[in-house]
Specification:
The chain has a 5-stranded antiparallel sheet, sandwiched between helices. About 5% of the residues have low confidence. The chain starts with a helix and ends in a 12-residue tail after the last helix. The protein has one domain: C8orf32 fold, CATH 3.10.620. It has about 250 residues and is α+β, with helices and mostly antiparallel strands. It has 9 helices and 5 strands. A hairpin with a 3-residue loop joins β3 and β4.
Length: about 250
């Protein structure tokens, strides 16, 4: 079984089929995309661009033996794992953000879900990330400027392609519903921009990077995540049986 360090390197090499290029800063792009636009115009553009993503052929690496369409049971199991995990669960956020800087670690949870799916044998082309960028606020006044979730390819009852958003905050839902929830419940101006990115994007810019993951700012969050994966790989049979393909 691959160690988590090797898995991160392999996933990074897979980032060739660009959606929103990793080198683009999403805040810079957001400023350009909303300039002079109404909330309704931005919303319609988001839905149109997402439909274009659905129409893309995301397969760049042909892995015939890997599942390409995720079952709901696996999606829910993965999200449940996050909520109970000793590192990435939001219940442990104070440990990794002791000064309450508002780090949030949504980008950490998405990395965990991405690596968990790939480690379980799910096709790496069938995993991406969805971002919303724009001013958001909770009912109790907490504010932030962006959010991200891991998304995975699946099919509806008619066999049409759709994508799950595996977000512990909203639960497992389709990407359109995930976006609508964030727009309707948290957006301050209803001008959220939706972006689809490669699974290897780390935050609003850049990709998984050893130096970044080891940054002291994160208080060993990513080091502890790696240790958890390595322990599971070496000492359990968690990854002995790959994810099964959706019928």
């Amino acid at each position: 079984m691959k160690t988590i360090a090797l898995l991160i390197a392999l996933c990074s090499l897979a980032a060739q089929a660009q959606i929103t290029p990793n080198k683009i800063n999403l805040f810079t792009q957001y400023s350009k995309d909303i300039q002079g636009k109404t909330a309704d115009q931005i919303h319609k553009a988001n839905l149109k661009n997402y439909q274009k993503f659905i129409e893309l052929d995301v397969d760049k690496f042909v892995d015939y033996d890997k599942a390409k369409f995720l079952k709901m049971s696996y999606a829910q199991e993965t999200v449940n794992l996050v909520t109970k995990n000793p590192v990435v669960s939001s219940y442990h956020s104070k440990k990794y953000d002791p000064q309450n800087l508002g780090i949030g670690f949504c980008f950490g949870r998405t990395m965990f879900i991405h690596l968990e799916l790939v480690q379980r044998g799910f096709d790496r082309d069938s995993v991406k990330k969805a971002y919303v960028v724009g001013p958001m606020q909770t009912p109790d006044g907490a504010s932030w400027g962006w959010h991200v979730t891991t998304i995975a390819q699946t099919k509806d009852a008619r066999g049409n392609e759709k994508w799950f958003a595996l977000d512990p905050i909203t639960g497992v839902t389709d990407v359109e519903s995930w976006y609508s929830t964030l727009r309707n419940k948290f957006s301050k101006d209803k001008k959220l921009k939706l972006y689809i990115a490669e699974s290897t994007r780390f935050g609003t810019t850049g990709v998984y990077d050893e130096n970044m993951l080891a940054d002291k700012f994160y208080n060993n969050y990513f080091n502890d995540m790696r240790k958890w994966f390595d322990n599971e790989s070496r000492n359990t049979n968690r990854y002995a049986h790959p994810i099964e393909e959706l019928d």
